[in-house]
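Researcher: Go.
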Amino acid sequence: MLTEKDYEAIADAIAEYRAYNQLTEDDLVNRLAEYFEKENPNFSRKKFARMCNPF
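Model: Structure:
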């Protein structure tokens, strides 16, 4: 279950993405993946990245 801390981290990543036009969608995915890895040792960055780019 997500907590307020999680929602804040996600919002921060999205705000950073929107604020700096030079950031790419990959930067956003990586920023979120870094946070998720810290919070969950079973998190799979590779799987997450694959899910974010289904094509």
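Model: The chain has a mean pLDDT of 89.
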